[in-house]
Predict the structure of glucose-6-phosphate 1-epimerase.
Amino acid sequence: MGHSAAIWDYKAAMEISKDWNGIDHVLLRNPQGASARISLHGGQVISWKNDQGEELLFTSSKAIFKPPKAMRGGVPICFPQFGNAGSLEQHGFARNKLWAVDDDPPPLPPNDSVGKSLVDLLLKPSEEDLKFWPHSFEYRLRVSLAASGNLILISRVRNINGKPFSFSFAYHTYLSVSDISEVRIEGLETLDYLDNLHQRERFTEQGDALTFETEVDRIYLNSPNAIAVLDHERKRTYVIRKEGLPDIVVWNPWEKKSKSMVDFGDEEYKQMVCVDGAVIEKPITLKPGEEWTGRLEISAVPSSFCSENLENTGL
C-alpha cells in the first residue's frame, strides 16, 4: 500500500471492486497484511484473513453468490429478526439488501484509527420494505480491521419513525475450524439456553465446555461478554467479545441437516461452527429517535490461551 504504520491512512487502506454480479466489494487491509472483504450485498463480511493469509471465516463451496439469496458463510447480518416469524423472510431482510457506503459516518473516537482500516455502510428501508415491515430506520454498520488483525463490527440502528418498533438481531458468524469434533467452546457453562431442536424449550448447560457430537442449534441467554472457541487441531482460539448482544447462538448442522441444504456441502459441517453475538430472547424496542448499538470483536490467537485468561488479556 506504500503506507508505513506511523502514517497509516485508514481510508486509503480500503479498496472497492466489483464481483461478477456487478456488486461492490470493499477490501480492508492492515499494515501487517491481514485483510477483510465486505460485500455491499447484505453488508456481509465474506472473508477475514490473518497476516499469514489464512482464511478465518467459513464459506460453503456450494454457496450461491447471487442476489437475492444471502451467501452461506462469512458474517450475514440477521435483522430485523433472527429465525422465522410472521411475514418476514427467515433472518430478516438486511442480509438480502444492497447497502450503500455511508458518506456521512459518525466520527471516529480519538486514537481509534491507529493502524485500522474500516468502512461505514448504511441501510435504509425501501418503499417495498416498508410494506412488509412498516418502520422507518437507519442502520449504520462499521466494519473495521484493527492493527492487531481483529475484526470489529459495530451496528447502530436508529428509529426515525413516529412510533416505537422492536427487532431481534444476530451477527451470524461462520468460523472456519479444522474438525468440529475437536472444537470446544468455553464461556457458556451454567447458562440457560433455548434449544431450537426442541421447539425452543429451555435447558441449562451442564458441561464445563460445549463440544460437538451431533447437530447443535441453541440460543444461550445472558452470556458473558467474552467467549472462547478452541480449535485444538489448528492450535487456534477465536475470542469473541461483544457489547449490547446478550445472547449467543451456537449452530452446527451436522450430517443429516447438511445433506438437506442445497447451498452447503454434505461434509462441510466438519469445517465450520456458527457462534453469533445476538439479541433474541428479549428483542430491542426503540422509541422514536432512539438508537441501539451492538458491537462484536473477533480475534484469533494461538491456543495456549484459555477462557481463564479472558478477563485479563486486555485484547
Remarks:
- The chain has one domain: 5-312.
- The radius of gyration is 19 Å.
